[in-house]
Design brief:
Blueprint lengths: L2 H19 L1 H4 L3 H60 L2 H7 L3 H6 L2 H15 L5 H5 L5 H53 L2 H4 L1 H10 L1 E2 L8 E2 L2
Antiparallel strand pairs: 1-2
């Protein structure tokens, strides 16, 4: 959501807090009390929708980061022996792919990083390289943690991007939910006017809660 929408949501939270704290006094108007419950229910929906997408993205991003960290930690254990083998086989292409530094690997963007690791593991699976790696104890079983980490990274990285894209779409949905919430609040505004006669202090407190709070230094302002 954009900044204005976020400010509106903060204001709605203030309103929900106020009517919840003053639930007993609000009961003087059955209509206002029911509408206050509607506002609180809609507010919870908006907050729940916003929090859910953020948690999913955070979890997927954490999986991708953990997998990449594992790959960066384990790759040198393969790259070192591969560079020795490349020298013995006089294979310059293999040598070039096996002499990447940790710094170079860290700078690669996700797609390029996947391509490089795929290429390194493909080189390790070459018929002429497998026996040489086995002499150093690097059997297919020993290299499996690398393959597992790469598989996790491939799965989590696109999933994280997809969820971020879904959050963009969800952002539009959240704005629609917030627009509906604001409609409910405006109805509550009308119902609360009765408290000008019933409980002026309660009404004044409500109008204070109803002010839009911003971080732009302009102070609070009433929201239509």
């Amino acid at each position: 959501m954009n900044k204005d929408k976020e400010d509106q949501l903060v204001m709605c939270g203030q309103v929900v807090d106020y009517v919840t704290e003053n639930k007993d006094a609000l009961a003087a108007s059955e209509v206002a009390a029911e509408q206050a419950d509607e506002v609180a229910e809609h507010y919870a929906q908006v907050e729940g929708a916003r929090g859910g997408t953020a948690k999913r993205t955070k979890s997927l991003t954490a999986d991708a980061k953990a997998a990449k960290k594992t790959l960066l930690e384990l790759l040198p254990a393969l790259l070192g022996p591969l560079s020795r083998i490349a020298t013995r086989l006089q294979d310059n292409d293999l040598l070039a792919s096996a002499t990447l530094s940790s710094k170079q690997l860290r700078k690669l963007r996700p797609l390029a990083f996947v391509g490089v690791v795929d290429a390194v593991l493909a080189s390790a699976a070459r018929p002429d390289v497998v026996p040489e790696l086995a002499k150093q104890g690097l059997t297919a079983k020993a290299l499996q943690p690398l393959r597992d980490a790469l598989a996790t990274f491939k799965t989590a990285q696109p999933a994280a991007r997809k969820t971020i894209n879904e959050r963009v779409v969800a952002g539009a949905a959240l704005e629609e939910l917030l627009d509906a919430l604001m409609d409910e609040v405006r109805q509550l505004d009308a119902d609360m006017k009765a408290f000008k006669l019933l409980d002026r202090e309660l009404y004044n407190g409500y109008t204070q809660a109803r002010k839009l709070v911003t971080t732009g230094g302009r102070g609070g302002a009433a929201v239509a």
